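Technical appendix A lists one of the benchmark inputs used to test multi-chain prediction within the project. The record comprises two sequence entries:
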Amino acid sequence: MNETIPATPPPTLTPDERDDLRRQGILLTSLEELYNWGRSHSVWPLNFGLACCAIEMIAASMARFDIARFGSEVFRPSPRQADLLIVSGTVTKKMAPHVVRLWNQMPEPKYCIAMGACAISGGPFKQGYNVLKGIDRFIPVDIYIPGCPPRPEALLNGLVQLQQKIRGQPLTGADAPRHLRSDDPCDCPVPELGANDIEPSHTPALWSAPALPRPDKG
Amino acid sequence: MEALEVLRERLCARFSGIEVALIPNASPSGQSSLLLSGSGLREVAYFLRDDPALRLDQCSNVTGVDWPEREVVDTVKETQPGAPGEAPTIVERKIKRTEPGCLEVVYHLYSIALRQGPLVLRLRTGNRTDAVTVPSFTPVWRSCEFQEREVFDLFGVVFEGHPDLRRILMWDAFKDHPMRKDYVEPDDYEWEPTPHGDVLAKARKHYPVPMAPGATDDPATAGKISE
């Protein structure tokens, strides 16, 4: 599929020139831009909360912070209808296979936000025996929102960042999103619950242990 | 509520097969407790619930304590007769003995009807390996059900007569009991910027920093990676 569609030619107009034309009432756009603009303004999150971060997520969806301003007010109770998985809170090892399974059940195009310190790295519970050290070990994360928990404004900012990311996605070529490519498998392997830990502890294709700076090794 | 000494006498007089020991608590809370042992302890629980002077109708908390085997040093003073014409000397002798380990279950009982409590009950298992059974109080107080499952899950106490004794927090295939003192957690430490305490010990094991000549093993700097 990638070979048959030629890469998008570089735009001949700069964004400034196009803004000038827009002020004159002339709208110039491309299919890619229109498509991504539409997608980015109706990101439907999965109705899924794990811990205290979920309370902030609920607050963001209510009248005071009003996530509906950004087109994401439709929290779907089914992963089949959701575009966005907000991992909001501590992922215990017992819960990790279920989170990955939910992700696999979501149709492409789909995005993942790791909300709060726990979802990013395990947070204050990182060295605990029953807490996953970050959901990015098993599913690809698009946006990380630090905080413990993050304010609703931070979640809204993360959502805006995600919208920018969606709007910047080319529809063709090697950087095309997963749902437009056939070479990228969409399913993430689901870990097993073992006798003492989850197995495997991470998906090697997605995550590897950080390399430490060692001044003595040059 | 009546004093624990009085209650202890009453229980001992009424039930023949049990032993009741009073464990004092000298802390400001002053919550002394009763250690029950023997057979037919569930009858004691029914009595505590139904006795008109007690009516302990709510079990608010069930928790566990792990007492591993430990070495206790007893100091014994002995009087030795001195030489003729001198006073006898007092010699202190230290005797080491090993106190066997056990698992303990603690119940906090309140009376909503009479607005009194708590009464703290303790049950102990025979050891930490094979004799880990205590009677379940779930038939007496329904609120014990999930909490006894939690004690079973995290400490490994088996509650005899529990209607549904399964793990509640860890998954079913899990093998150990994480709240026991000798639990060995998965060896999955990862580097973090500011380790301290137990985490620092793990950090040193997993990310040993070669020491410069003349450097000391200072806990304040060890385990940290310089920029």
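Chain A touches chain B through 20 residues (CB under 8 Å). The CA atoms of residues 23 and 211 of chain A lie 51 Å apart. Comparable benchmark entries are summarised in Table A2.
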